[in-house]
Design a protein that fits this description.
alpha+beta; globular; 3 helices; 2 domains; four-stranded antiparallel beta sheet; single chain
């Protein structure tokens, strides 16, 4: 990854745990200042029982985020939204909270993710209202 705009995303590891997972933002920042394509590496799905059943093998995951309007006229989204990614994390944390060995940290993380989703939904409602007003 030799391009100047490729940047490693840091802070993904829990304190004291080293998984070998790495995340890079791999596209140029857009007009909004954000990068929209991320590459997650450092894993091997051959050791994941769920992926073995589906016969999917991978050692990286490209995550494309939407560029442009969230509801493009007459077209499909060109990537996922922050809310979609947070909803996936919320689903996993809610499942972990229901397990017999649930922990306070997962419950706390779930509260924060739900708060982030609520803030994004509020932002979406505000932007929609502003667009109708102009």
């Amino acid at each position: 990854m030799e391009k100047a705009f490729v940047r490693e995303v840091t802070g993904i590891e829990a304190s004291g745990s080293e998984t070998g997972l790495r995340v890079h933002a791999i596209d140029e920042p857009g007009a909004d200042g954000a990068q929209h394509v991320y590459d997650v590496t450092g894993f091997d799905t051959r050791t994941n029982p769920g992926m073995q059943e589906m016969r999917i093998r991978s050692s990286n995951l490209i995550v494309p985020f939407q560029i442009g309007p969230a509801r493009p006229p007459g077209g499909a989204m060109n990537g996922i939204t922050d809310a979609v990614l947070l909803a996936i994390v919320r689903d996993r944390l809610a499942a972990l909270k229901r397990r017999p060995l649930a922990c306070v940290e997962c419950a706390e993380a779930l509260l924060h993710v739900e708060g982030a989703l609520f803030a994004l939904h509020r932002r979406g409602a505000r932007v929609a209202l502003e667009r109708r007003s102009t």
